[in-house]
Specification:
Elements (H helix, E strand, L loop, with lengths): L2 H7 L4 H12 L10 E7 L7 H20 L4 E7 L15 H5 L19 H15 L5 E4 H7 L3 H9 L1 H8 L5 H6 L3 E3 L12 E5 L4 E5 L6 E5 L5 E3 L1 H12 L6 E2 L3 H13 L9 E2 L2 E2 L16 H7 L2 H9 L6 E2 L5 H14 L5 H6 L1 H5 L13 H11 L4 H11 L9 H21 L7 H15 L7 H14 L5 H13 L7 H8 L1 H12 L7
Parallel strand pairs: 1-2, 2-3, 9-10, 11-12
Antiparallel strand pairs: 4-8, 5-6, 6-7
């Protein structure tokens, strides 16, 4: 093993910890198929959301970590369960009546309510692939419908039929009495209506490869093959069958699927294969702390995040603390943006082991860019707020003074950040601003701050401005200096939290800040 791999093996990054599972799995050599297969799953019953992206991003990070530890080739399949029946109509799509008329049909047989693709499943699959392609993920897309109808799953489906009783005995103890009485792993596709049926199987013929059921409307007994797309499996059995057919080595899943992973693992062993290695991540929550749902559309969409922040900041949010439940709402974006550039700035100075634990190594597959930024996203947001900036040129007027020679052309990453800041300010910061006037104690401190700022030399450093602000707070007996800074934020910026004041004043301008303070001291409501 190379010295690089040895250093990586000692990393406590969760991605390397996961990759080590696969190193141990194939310690004696590569699998017979010649590669390690990673898989991610997607249920296209609703539009893709950031949780979907997160699973692909995190799996890709584990895959890349494994590539540093092993010479075994790898592949990644993004699998869409698009043969599943549409059980309910999502809240966030048009033409709800059209979908209602096609409930319980396979998603690839449900008309597209957007009118752009052959089916609702195809529409959502295209949305998913377009986004994954935008991020440059190296993956192979697989459609459940294609795998079933092409015969790719036939051998594994016949094994499910062969081991029907053993599989039933795994599933039945987990079901209630009513469901237990009618459960079958096979869901026939009704030849008459095209609906995915959930009817009891009345007979099965292992040699012929068929199952029979009673049509609930006609009362006739119908016999269909379990192969060729004539039947769909219940999803826990389907998951195990897919692992078997594709020989999946690694797949992660949300914490809510732990019991399902356990059941599917038992079933794939019955079918004769080893379950994949796995990882259970915590769920993303909406603003109210509720689980994000594709059908409800209660989280941030892919497009929404990218309107306000970079793809890299999104990847960072996915990398950090995957075992911790996190809110996926708009207010997490500014911190994610600034943390990304903080990690990027630290990377060149770190030793190899530290670099392997740095999120940017995983985000950029081992080759993070070198360009840093002279300003934080948070400061740009506050600058936009004070300057009431609706166009980038307003911010660049301040930036070019703070960073001589800086332009959108010479600083493309900063230019992107300026655009994000204006969009975020306009949609979230501006509507929420609420200014107040200072009390007597705060007024006296603001008067001294204005006086002291006027006395500063023209070439003063941001750190010296910050020290001055601190000293004014101490001079006016703010026992908790947070109260002093909060007073500055609420009176000057119209918000309860804000930037490092030394950096902000240096960017906005000392004279401009003094003028702002004087407006407040004159009793002017900055929000009016």
């Amino acid at each position: 093993m190379s010295s690089v791999a040895e250093i990586a093996l000692s990393s406590n990054s969760w991605a390397f910890v996961e990759a080590k599972k696969l190193v141990d799995r194939y310690a004696k050599g590569a699998p017979e198929k010649g590669y390690v297969l990673f898989e991610t799953g997607y249920g296209p019953s609703g539009l893709p959301h950031l949780g979907t992206f997160g699973e692909v991003a995190r799996t890709s990070m584990v895959r890349h970590a494994f590539s540093l530890l092993s010479d075994i080739p790898t592949r990644l399949i993004a699998f869409s369960d698009d043969m599943d029946g549409l059980r309910k109509v999502p809240d966030n799509v048009p033409n709800q009546e059209l979908l209602t008329e096609n409930l319980n049909k396979p998603l690839t047989q449900v008309p597209d309510p957007f009118g752009t693709h052959d089916s609702f499943g195809a529409h959502n699959n295209a949305r998913l692939q377009a986004f994954l392609d935008q991020f440059g993920f190296d993956y192979e897309f697989r459609s459940s419908t294609e795998c079933y109808t092409s015969g790719m799953f036939d051998e594994s489906l016949l094994l499910v039929l062969k081991h029907y009783d053993a599989i039933i005995n795994v599933i039945l103890p987990t079901l209630g009495p009513e469901r237990r009485a009618t459960y079958s792993p096979f869901l026939p596709i009704c030849p008459r209506t095209g609906v995915v049926l959930q009817e009891p199987i009345t007979a099965r013929d292992e040699e012929a490869g068929t199952v029979s059921y009673v049509d609930p409307e006609t009362g006739e007994t119908v016999t269909v093959p379990v192969t060729g797309g004539h039947c769909k499996l219940q999803w826990k059995v389907d998951w195990a069958m897919r692992w078997h057919a594709l020989e999946v080595d690694y797949e992660m899943a949300g914490k809510d699927l732990i019991d399902s992973v356990t059941l599917s693992s038992k079933i794939v062993r019955i079918l004769g294969k080893r379950p994949p290695e796995g990882f259970n991540y915590e769920l993303f929550l909406d603003q109210e702390g509720k689980k994000i749902s594709k059908s409800k559309g209660n989280g941030i969409t892919i497009e929404e995040w990218l309107k306000y922040a970079s793809p890299e900041s999104l990847a960072l949010y996915m990398y950090q603390s995957p075992k911790k439940a996190k809110r996926l709402h708009f207010d997490v974006i500014p911190k994610a943006v600034d943390e990304y550039f903080t990690f990027l700035g630290k990377y060149p100075e770190q030793e190899a082991k530290q670099q392997y634990a740095n999120p940017v190594w995983h985000i950029h597959a081992g080759t993070p860019p070198s360009e840093g930024l002279p300003l934080t996203f948070g400061i740009l947001l506050n600058l936009a707020a004070v300057a009431n900036a609706e166009e980038p040129d307003v911010l660049w007027g301040f930036i070019s003074r703070y960073v001589p020679g800086a332009t959108a052309e010479t600083n493309p990453e900063l230019a992107k950040l300026v655009g994000y800041a204006i969009a975020y300010y306009h949609d979230f910061v501006k509507p929420a601003k609420s200014y107040r006037l200072p009390d007597d104690k705060e007024r006296a401190a603001l008067e001294q701050l204005a006086t002291d700022l006027k006395a500063l030399p023209k070439d003063v450093e941001p750190a010296d401005i910050q020290n001055l602000v601190f000293q004014v707070g101490k001079d006016h007996a703010f026992d908790n200096l947070r109260e002093w800074f909060q007073a500055l934020y609420e009176t000057l910026l119209g918000q309860s939290q804000g930037p490092r004041m030394g950096s902000f004043i240096a960017l906005y301008g000392v004279d401009e800040t003094v003028a702002l303070i004087e407006r407040v001291l004159m009793g002017e409501d900055l929000g009016a």
